[in-house]
Design goal:
21 strands, single chain, alpha/beta
Amino acid sequence: MTATATTTDEDRYRLLVNAITDYAIYMLDPEGRVVSWNAGAERFKGYASTEIIGHHFSRFYTAEDQAAGVPRKALRTAETEGRFEQEGWRVRKDGGRFWAHVVLDPIRSSGGQLIGFAKITRDLTERKLAAEALRKSEEEFRLLVQGVVDYAIYMLDSAGRVTTWNLGAQRIKGYRPEEIIGGHFSAFYTEEDRAAGAPAQALAVAADEGRFETEAWRVRKDGSRFRAHVVIDAIRDGEGTLLGFAKVTRDVTERLEAQRALEEAKEALFQSQKIEAIGQLTGGIAHDFNNLLMAVLGSLELVRKRLDYDPRITPLLDNAIQGAERGAILTQRMLSFARKQELTFVAVDVPSLVRGMSEFIERTIGPTIDVSVRFPPRLRRVQTDPYQLEAAILNLVVNARDAMPHGGKIAITAEPDAGAVSPGGSRGDPAFVRISVKDTGEGMDEETLKRATEPFFTTKGAGKGTGLGLSMVHGLAEQSGGRFALVSREGEGVTAHIWLPVAAPGPHADAPDGAPAGASGRQGLRILAVDDDQLVLTNTVAMLEDLGHTVIAALSAKEGLEAAGAHAELDLVITDEVMPRMSGSQMAAEILRSRPDLPIGIVTGYADLADRGSRLSLGLPRLAKPFTQDALATFVDQLMLDETTPA
């Protein structure tokens, strides 16, 4: 009964072992030959029991392991130590390899004699491949992170200490791995941020919300600052326990600087467009106002000339004339800002011009201001209008004086500009001369500096300035082909720079003396006067008739052409420049086609750029509005003199 039960138990055991397919379970004799074989072994290794029983188990090993004696060592280890366990590559019947977990246990009799070995093998190929893929992925990720140089990517432990460090972090922050690993990441923060607790706050937000992101200033190893975009992510295990933080930092300093440069360019463009729009408006208003002043000033002069002196009337007329003349100066400044003022360009010796007005400057600014003048030897002449340049320098000096109510110093200097080559000069010759007026006054804040050249903007009290002084300087520089700039900080004074182009060889101008030419007594000419403004035309006709001339009036260029064709006896033509549909220069060109010897003069206070080239190419003299009767008489003399002078 017992034997039957034992046999039954053995059969059951054998059936159990043979039924297992996930493990290869089989017996070896003491020499390592296979003596039993289950279904799992057949599935793993590919051998049927009739093919393998009686053969040595070493055939399951790779050729390399067989050569190294691994099967023999496995049996010896199991025999001497009671167990052998290993993972390694094994070989199937078809030569394919699989990754196996192997356990080899000795089997002994009740007397302790070795009778064989029990061998259990499990196929772990899938797990091995998955682990290898994971290892490879982790290695590739590590190499990826290490290879990134545009981002600082590193790990922090839960306390904020650095645990990894990539090349990007080294490049951006300046620390080598051995210098920073183990150190606290707060070393990258500014002193102000550390004092405010910013590092701890960043970790707290990342821990609570899973992520922290900001853009702020950070500090490199050498102490320099850079603008950083920072992201901190919390890292947790499967149970949610905080393991540390992943930190990614990008240096966005260049982007910030590019953005700032773009904003500055946009602001400069806006300011340029605003100044241009104001200039257009100012030029148009000044042109119309000039015509009104022409009528007022001319009429007042004629009234004064025709009335005997009356103490009750004559002073009032003089006062009205002076007011009109001041208005004329104001419009000239407005036109200068708008770059529409007629300028007489000549080669100007800046040192001679400034020294020529030194005495006047000293009288103007008073005894509490010390003025110094410094020029290099052999400074080249500049191409501009000497009268307007004198007015511009005087404007700057007066502004400097007003900024120093308790006294100070003004320095007037000029030097070659080394930034370009002049059109007619050799290499190394400067294209511009920079004239500077520097004071030790109160200076300007940023907002005032931005608006300083706007027309009518002034920081002076009511009635103490027109707000057009710097605008006029700006207009002169631009119209001369140069530029104007102010440099200032609050409390550090102001330096005004005027860049003017170097003059090509040609006629030189002495410092202006302002002395008007006297009117002649020439009379009896037949003159065609053309102007689209009735007030100005009436005034011009009255002045010419008062000088003893016969005048034919025309209110447009078309009427002027008709009159010129109808009156062959004309001695000269005086015409306005800016008129609708046809300018004075265009009308003059038409007249000169049929009458090339007829003297023609242009009167204008508005430099129409489209026709200025035509006027200059025709060689037409010009008279600036508003003009006095004496100036008109001199202009007539000039026109007739040019007509009679032999070519």
